[in-house]
Amino acid sequence: MRVLVTGAAGRVGANVVRRLVEADVAVTAMVLPGDRQAAKLAPLTGVRVIEADLGDQAAVDAACAGATHIVHLAAQLVRGDTPVDRFYDINAFGTLRLLEGALRTNGGIERFVLASTDGTYRPGDPPAVPLREDAPQEPADYYGTSKLLGEVILRNHAAQFDIPYSMVRFATVVSPEEAAGYFRLDSARAMLRRADLGRDSNIWQLFRGRPDLLPILDTAAGDAPPDAAVGLVGPDGHSWSLHMVDVRDAVQGVHLALTEPDALGGVFNIAAAEPTTWEHGAAVLAELFDVPKLSVAMPFDWRLEVTVDAARERLGYQPRYDFRATVQEARATASGVAADFIPARV
């Protein structure tokens, strides 16, 4: 097996490369030209690192040369100042260029794994709770739509050229050192300020006709410190929820999608065993970091949850980390325990 991993300097990508290297798999790691995060790969022996932009077919062809398998993790998550056509070109047509690269240089591959996202389910207004893989995919935002187009391109190119494939749709991927930043007052404010992006946000539906969310939070918080733990609760008493996945469980899902025979032709949500409610996440932070905890009443419910039943049943996926375990891992590594993951940023 010779595997090309795109997005190899990313949060998931570097850890996928590490997993493959530990299994004595030959890896080509594709990174953006000049990406400083590529330094994360330096300690991994035997990895061929190649710089390539997903918009450059010749560079993509060079990266694909000799690969028997491709794990496509590269994507741009936030559009920012990127022109819309360039953003779609990266996330959708980048997938096409990789497929063409495999056909041009190798005549085909043994498996193509595409990393997609729960963002294709319209996270600002989910059509179901929990979301199964057959839930409607009508994201109506730039990121979710661009990733959905990548899925369509893969399905159709695979049918046209007999390319074996599988797809994983990640929940919110969290590296342990990042976890304690969730469910805080300052992070809750940052999320609600995404309303300022208007319909450029991937959760714009959440803010539609609701300009009062940030004032509600600020009024309830009063003079609480920015690191206070915050639980957001709907009018029926149910906490808001967010489905997360520890980066190590994300790697497990990718590896199974790459290696399991039953993964072929399938699409799999990859997430923690259970979603994390804001109330639970805030309680964990208050306990472990001795910070105050607030419960803030919001005027509606919001639950972004997926089911991982398909991955469990077809792949043998066994998520190991809930929010508490991820936070505790970060505390352990901060105190000197050797980490079993590569942090998100160098």
Automatic annotation (TrEMBL):
Chain ranges of the NAD-dependent epimerase/dehydratase domain: 3-271
Domain of life of the source: Bacteria
Pfam families per UniProt: Epimerase (PF01370)
InterPro entries linked: Epimerase_deHydtase (IPR001509), Lipid_A_modif_metabolic_enz (IPR050177), NAD(P)-bd_dom_sf (IPR036291)
PANTHER family per record: BIFUNCTIONAL POLYMYXIN RESISTANCE PROTEIN ARNA (PTHR43245)
Name of this chain's protein: NAD-dependent epimerase/dehydratase family protein
Lineage, uppermost ranks: Bacteria, Bacillati, Actinomycetota, Actinomycetes, Micromonosporales
